[in-house]
Structures are given as C-alpha cells and as structure tokens.
Amino acid sequence: MENYAISTQGLTKRFKKLTAVDGVDIRVKKGEIFGLVGPDGAGKTTTIQMLCGIMTPSAGSANVAGVDIIKAPDALGGRIGYMSEGFSLYGSLSIGENIDFFSDLYQVGKAERLERKEKLLKFSRLTKFVNRYAERLSGGMKKKLALSCTLMYSPEILFMDEPTTGVDPVSRREFWNIIHDFISEGVTVFVCTPYMDEAERCDRVALMYQGHILKCDTPQHLKSSLNNNLLAVRTNALRQTVEIFRQNSNYGQVEIFGEELHLTVENAAKEKKQVLSFLQTKGIQVYDIREIIPSLEDIFVTSINEESKDSDGLNNQRKEIGTYNYTLSINDTNTNSVEVKDLSKRFGDFIAVNNVSFKVRKGEIFGFLGPNGSGKSTTIKMLCGLHKPTSGNAYVTGYNIADRAREVKSRIGYMSQKFSLYNDLTAEENIDFYAGIYGLTGAVLKERKSWVLEMAGLTGQGNVITSDLSGGWKQRLALGCSILHQPEILFLDEPTSGVDPIARRQFWDLIYQLSDQGVTVFVTTHYMDEAEHCHRIAIIYYGNMIALGSPAQLKSEHFAGDISEVGTAQFSMEDLFISLIEAEDLKESRSYL
Predict the structure, then answer these.
(1) Where are the domains of the chain?
(2) Measuring CA to CA, which residue among 534, 532, 528, 568 is closest to residue 293?
(3) Mapping DSSP to helix (H, G, I), strand (E, B) and coil, where does residue 77 land?
(4) Residue 51: in which H helix or E strand, if any?
(5) Averaged over 452-481, what is the pLDDT?
(6) Which residue has the higher pLDDT, 424 or 194?
C-alpha cells in the first residue's frame, strides 16, 4: 500500500434509511490526479468528507496519507488540503488580504508566499483587483479567489469538491495548469467535478451513481469501453431529427451536442447508410454523417442509463412542455424581443459595460458569453430593469428599460445562477410564492402549479422541502417558477452551473421546447457545448463586445486558416472562446508598448 496516497475498502455511509455511499473501493496512487464524477446525489461530497475525516464512515475502512481515518482522523492535520464546494472568504478583507490570511493560516514562508501569490493572482486574472474587498467581487471572481487561497498551501493530498464551478473556461484551463505544477511537486489531487472536459484531464476517473462506483479507469480506456458505436449527424432540422429518432424504437440513444446530434448504433459502418436513407424518407436534409470517438460525457450518460432502467433513467425523464399551451407565436421571427444600442454602465470610474449593441429575435436562443467580471450579469440586470443604464438605449419587448422598467419586469422571467428558490419552503410553497408575485389565482394557478410539478418531475412530491432536492430537480423547479406567468423573454444567468451532464441535457430539452413555442431565451453559460446549442452568441470581454454571430459562423470566420492546417480537426466553441480572449489580451498588452 506504500504506493497509494488513498485506499478504501467497503467504504459506506448511511443516514438512517438512506445509504449515501455503498461499499466503495478506491485506490489512488501518489502523485495522481484522480477524478470522481457523478450526478447530483451520487455520494461524491459524502465520500470526500469521509476521506478528509469530517464524517465518520458507517462501515468499511480507509487510509489517507498513511492515516487510518477511522481510528485517528485528527492525524490528517497538516497532511491534506480541502476546498469544499461552499468555500468561505472574508468579505471585509481585500483580495490580497484574504490570500495573506490563508498564507498565515497555512504557515507559508515569505519567499514561497510572494512567488505563489503573484502566480495565482496572474492565473486568476485578479492582479488588477488585488485591493478590492471580497464582498464586492462577482460570484465567479470570489470562486477564483477561493481557489487561490487554497492553492497557497502545498499538502500531500489536495481534496477539491467542484473547485471550478462557475469559473469561465479561460480561468479553468489556467487553473488546471496550476494543478499540474502541483503534481510536479509530488502532490496527489482528488477532485470532484461536473465538467467532463476536466474529468478527461485526470489520470484516472471513477464514475459514481447512487453511492456505487460504476466504472474506474483512465479516460482513454473508459471511452473505448462503449459497446456500441456513435454517429454524429448534422441536418437542416436538428430538433425535428432528434424527435424522429426518439419516437423510433429501432434506434438507440440520441442527444443534441452543439450543432449536431449523437446517435448510438450497434455498427456505424453498417448503419450509416440506413440512417441516411431513413432521414431522407422523412424529408430531412443531411449535411454530414460520420462515426466519432465517444466523449467521456457520452460514456457517463450511457453508463447511468445502463445502470438505471426505471423511472430515474434519462430517456424516461423527458418532460414535454405543453400540459397547457404557451400563448405566444413565432409566426414572425423577424420581430426583435431585445434591441440594444450603445448601452453602457459605469460604477464610479469603473466601466462595467461599454457601448454594447445587439438585437435578439423573437423565439431565439441567444447566448451571452464572457469571462468572470466581463459585464454579462450587469448587462442582464439592465435588461431586466434592475440597473439603470449610464448611457445608451435598450428596448425589451418594445419598452425602453430606462423609463418603462415596470412594464418590462411583468413580461420577462429571470432565473439566476443560485436558482432563486427558498430552501426552507416545500416545492409547492415555492410555486405558490412566485404565483403570488405574478398575481396568479384560482383555476389558472391550479393548472400551472400542476404543470410546473410535472415538468420538474415532482408530481406527487410537492411537499418535499426544497433543500432536500438535488441540483437537477431544483434547477427545473426554478425554471418552472420563472415561467409561471408565461413571460415573452426568459433570462437565464448560468442556470446549469455545477449541474451534472444528465440534468443539463434534460434542461436543454426544456429550453428547446420553450423556444419552439415562441419564448425568447437569453442565456449566459460557462459550458461551451451549451453555447453551441444557441442560435446566436455574443462574446463580451471587459465590457466590450468582441464577437457576435451563430456558432458555425464564428468558428468559420475565426478558424478558417487553422482548419486548413490541421486537416480534419473539429474546433469547439471553447477553442474559439479562448482564442478570442487571448487575442484581446494581446491587443491590450501591445497598447502599452
């Protein structure tokens, strides 16, 4: 066991009748990056807290950094570092003071402290804000500061529970570069993450579901373990194609992934022509069909569906919005729901949004992307009538937000990153609360309450306390509460942050259905594959609009030369996003020369 930093046998944790972790066997080598991936409620956090000595196992054994965590959990002190999902900062201290405080707590030497502090501030892009109080930081900036504080310490084993949730792709990539630097120092890393691209950066990954480890191997071996093949299909009617496949029992699992769909088949070479012919008989024009290597997310979702054949399975949880019909129409898609012209917002000398202009068509899914602190949330708050613009104009559903904010608020729905629910209320009480705000009563309230519970998968469970719901259930309940009054525009501010891939795919099914019924969806996200689901996207950086167009348009415009050099490589939206941000940073650095 000398080569293992962590080893468990039959590790179990029970909470009365609930078995949260059930007989888990894990071996983590010294100097390894080990990823634990699973849906909400899988048992990931409980597992980490047992390994850190915070919770006492109900059964089984575990050895962490040479310490028996059942017999002597206090001996872990000084050997491990732990960053929980709800990491705390001191709001009355500045960024620099928070880092210094944790450096003192970890007893980091002066020379090492200065080097690490400079490096971490640079990677987190917080250098220019070093004197800003933590309470005045955006949610994403707080997360990056929390990461920096944790990484000031170099323990034998570093435990991290979803450390980059809510952090933009640029900072996530830079964060993982820092992690690899830690590995070179001999640190072992044990990380829980909902990001599949992050899981692929790990040396080994364990897929966890309902307290059990389903599979554990390297990402490469896991991806080669899929018994079936995967076809990527691009058509002129993506949503219609998906529904055609889902209604035909002859075809396997089908999911939208960016601007194409992924279809599971037994033999790609044999069935490729059959799929093409089948779609042609349905009047679907196929632009491209090819076999692809499955991603770790494909393996994850397939494994969960193989394990769960009952009502918890993904395909059995598809919820159709339409118990009652939305009263909107998308007959005229040229009508603009949002029109923004030279919109700016200043806070003192700080320019949060700088002369931004764009239009959003009725029924469009419009993605709004940018790193933390780029001005996304400030723009949304202005469009929702929560912030008054410093200059410029914006019209939402035809009303000027500067002087008709009341009319705007009655015609929009808003779902924040924190899901906007009251955890001490039941699901039904949350619905009643929002219905009261919107003035819904009587038969209309009864009908829509039933619809929200059905859409959220909570029919018959309206008395469940919201705090007891997993992230995926909360997410759909929050979405239902935000559209009880049938708004014309739905603003979603990082709605799937920290939610597992299964819940995210279900959520986007609902978004597509809303868009089909004429609802305009304005969404911010840090998941770049989600950005590819949008009809058009805008990228904002330090308050300035740096790109606007459809995902295909932006990738072709910005990667035309690169594609010819690398042949068949498929550039992702994340590649595009990071490329544009780095180009802007280069412009800024040149301006100082």
Answers:
(1) 4-222, 227-293, 418-486
(2) 568
(3) coil
(4) helix 44-51
(5) 85
(6) 424
Q: What are phi and psi of 592, to 5 degrees?
A: -90, -10
Q: What is the enclosing helix (H) or strand (E) of 399?
A: strand 399-400
Q: In which band, very low, low, confident or very high, does the pLDDT at 334 lie, cut at 50, 70 and 90? A: low
Q: For the segment 350-395, what is each residue's pLDDT rounded down to a tens digit?
A: 999 999 999 999 999 999 998 878 898 899 999 999 899 999 999 9
Q: Are 522 and 531 in contact (CB under 8 A)?
A: no
Length of the chain: 593
Contact predicate 337/361, CB 8 Å: yes
The mean pLDDT value of the chain amounts to 85
- What is the rounded CA–CA span in Å between residue 285 and residue 241? 10
Neighbours of 14 (CB within 10 A): 14
Cβ neighbours around 275 below 10 Å, total:
18
The CA distance from 399 to 406, in Å, is 10
pLDDT of residue 313: 42
Strand ranges inside 42-198, DSSP E:
59-64, 67-68, 80-83, 157-161, 188-192
Residues 46-85 have pLDDT tens digits of 999 999 999 999 999 999 999 999 999 999 988 998 888 7
- Could you tell me whether strands 520-524 and 365-369 are parallel, antiparallel, or unpaired per DSSP bridges? parallel
CA 421 to chain CA centroid, Å, is 18
Average pLDDT, integer, range 239-256: 85
Give me the amino acid identity at 59.
A
**Cβ partners under 8 Å of residue 529, min gap 6:** 257, 258, 572, 573
Judge: domain 227-293, CATH 3.30.70.100. Answer: yes
Tokens (6 digits) for 467: 């705090």
340, 359 contact by CB (below 8 A): yes
Burial of 338 per CB tally in 10 Å (0-12, 13-18, 19+): buried
Distance CA 523, CA 543 (A): 17
> Hey, which CATH number is domain 4-222, 3.30.1360.120, 3.40.50.300, 3.40.50.10170, 3.40.50.1110?
3.40.50.300
Rounded Cα–Cα distance for residues 173 and 187 (Å)? 19
- Cα Dmax for the chain: 72
The rounded distance, in Å, linking the Cα atoms of 292 and 447 is 44
Please report, for residues 179, 317, 384, 396, the alpha-carbon distance to residue 342 in angstroms, rounded to integers and kept in the order given: 41, 43, 17, 15
Q: Report, as an integer, the average pLDDT of 288-298.
A: 87
**pLDDT band with cut points at 50, 70 and 90 for residue 139:** low
1-13 average pLDDT score? 91
Select from 510, 508, 560 the least CA-distant residue to 534.
508
Q: What distance, in Å, lies between the first and last C-alpha atoms of the chain?
A: 56
Q: How many CA atoms lie within 13 A of 194 on its CB side?
A: 25
Residues with Cβ within 8 Å of residue 305, at least 6 apart in sequence: 253, 313, 314, 315
Q: pLDDT category, 498, cuts 50, 70, 90?
A: low
Do residues 272 and 322 lie in contact, with contact meaning Cβ atoms separated by under 8 Å? no
Q: Which position has the higher pLDDT, 286 or 297?
A: 286
